[in-house]
Task: structure prediction
Amino acid sequence: MADTLTSFDENPHGLVDFPMAKEQTCPFDPPPALKRIQDEQPLTRVRLWDGSSPWLVTRFEDVRTLLSDARVSSNALGDGFPHFNAAGKARFQSNHTFVNMDAPEHPRMRKMVTRPFMVKRVEALRPQIQAMTNELIDEMLAGPKPADFIEALALPLPSLVISELLGVPYQDHKFFQDQSAVLAERDAAPEKVVAAIDALRDYLGQLIQAKRKSPQQDLLSELVTERVDNDELTDQDAVELSILLLAAGHETTANMIGLGTLALLQHPDQLALVRETDDPAVVSKTVEELLRWLTIPHLGRRRVAAEDIEIGGVVIRAGEGIICAADIANRDPAEFENPDALDITRDARKHVAFGFGVHQCLGQPLARVELQVVWSTLFKRVPTLALSGDFRDLPYKHDALIYGLYDMPVTW
Amino acid sequence: MRIEVDAPKCVTSGQCVMIAPDVFDQDDDGIVIVLDENPAEGQRGVVEESAAVCPAAAIFVIED
Result:
């Protein structure tokens, strides 16, 4: 291995450290070291923060194969699971949900919260999401220039939507946005992460008790009246699930709205195609291509082998960690022609930005509708939207679990 | 062309409903339902795409 990987920054153990750094001048692209690994040794062992050495999987087909293999476990409480860092480990241990469970617990628990994310239920929300988007754009346009696009639209829209869906009062948004942000910090102290989870647990626990007394048309009410009261879930389960969904609703779509909008601003030819179309199919393709090209869960899908698995000429032994690097897999030339080009006319839907297999993102229909509404509206409403400053100087979230932007000054 | 699904494997990603809404739907828990077991040839593209992107490999396109 050392023969082919001598160009990498190796630690004394001869393994490449993961994660790697992106090129400062290419904030949209995966780290160049990942590309070289994909080309030269697509299944290789890397070294993590705790000295462990899980397998890194970089090819599209291998990622799909492993993420849909029942011998590949998501159990984050056992040995060998390649945690993001000490904070990530503390988070999974404190907020234990179906994300880190295997069958049979995983499908049973996941099913408790699938209803609001059904395609037709999400489509029924589209007019409301459109109205929220229009209102946020109105407010931005009425305010001073430059405006912070993250604060004006990228964060409040998904925050409003997930609050509405769960039945969390949006007036408390400062509190739950701040706590969710702590959960997304890669380098937060474990105690800080646990404190944020505890704060959300207290808040959502009280809210769920209030929903029991006066249920409404929202997911928290449904969990308590239909699931807890029928003994399918405990009160504690309901609270842990709500923490997961509230945080997930903030960490993901907000970053995608911000970074995706920036990507379009940096590609005016592509942006023009979006601005000038009234065809939902064009907008839908734009969303899929941006999901592929940006793949914001940039630290990979983390798993552990439950049995020995032979793949691509190597054997992953039971108990060894696995990191499926979806960002570089979505740039695999064996799967996508000219993969580093942003091309919204391509058919990118098979991407693994939402993961693959039984753990593939639960909220994906909702994320898709939010992104479709934003990009079909924004450039028509604000055709002169422009970045204020140099895109290379923006504060990118290199240090977060989900990649994106801390803020993004725009003018019009 | 005949469509079969392995509903217990479905993980409710909903992608088939978005791609081929005339062929697939979801029940109250989000689990796949086949609306048209013998779709017209014109649906072949979207049906095959649905099967290809299904994260649970729960959709089968069978040639009789």
Notes: Chain A has one domain: 16-411.
